[in-house]
Structure of Glucose 1-dehydrogenase:
Amino acid sequence: MPRFDDQTVLVTGGTGGQGSSHVRAFHAEGANVVIGAIDAERGAALADELGTRARFTHLDVTDESSWSAAVLAAESTFGALHVLVNNAGVQNPPAPIEKTDQATWSRILDVNLTGTFLGIKVTAPALRRAAGGAIVNIASTMGLGGTAHYAPYVASKWAVRGLTHTAALELGRDHIRVNTIHPGVIATPFIQEPAAGATAAIADFYSPEPFAIPRLGEPADVTRLLLFLASSDASFITGSEYVIDGGLLLGPALQAETG
Ligand SMILES: NC(=O)c1ccc[n+]([C@@H]2O[C@H](COP(=O)([O-])OP(=O)(O)OC[C@H]3O[C@@H](n4cnc5c(N)ncnc54)[C@H](O)[C@@H]3O)[C@@H](O)[C@H]2O)c1
């Protein structure tokens, strides 16, 4: 039975590698979907492809008025908003801290952290009007440790964790749950960017061969966890953090051959 009948879900970065997977899956499970994105052409095309119960809205997550317009779009089209997925994200070009300019630092923090903050701030009243709901923030395994040459990204994703915990405390009594997902390396355009100290793509930098599960993650892997956290199956889960990385954080499962 579809888990999201009569519910409306807003996904930011809804045209991206993971975002579009999330949008399609929520829609397939009965939800009305609002595709929040900065890429109007792809957003409109995805909404057209899905047909009924889908609409695109221009949403730059760094802009509070853009958030207000997205909430209005959700409520005026579908009557209420029940789920927010703070998925939009950007990664800095790799560089050591000493060579990271302030504009780069600010841009990454603006999208990944301020964008998530604004999303919680502006949608919370709508979720309250809907008598409760769920917010899922997409952070990263990079938000659980340090990664050389990715200071802005790492710092932004660490901060999303504190924001999640705080929002869970503030919104729990209003039946709004707030959780975080930490994906490892997921096969999307995101990982085609050059990796630290090299021209190789991040996918090569984090070659999955030594992982306990030796493959890259697929967007659908994250989507399945996301749908669980957004659903009533997770009604007692808030302020929690879920790692989905095929064992990357465990360290190498395979030792280098010796002798
Ligand atoms: N792919 C990975 O390996 C990986 C790993 C860990 C975490 N993540 C996180 O997963 C999320 C989704 O990334 P993805 O892998 O689908 O990458 P992606 O590049 O395919 O998608 C990112 C999306 O964010 C959108 N975006 C960027 N700036 C925006 C803004 N100001 N307003 C609204 N949208 C904006 C982009 O247009 C794009 O659609 C991101 O938060 C990313 O940090 C990705």
User: Anything to note?
Assistant: The chain has seven helices and seven strands.
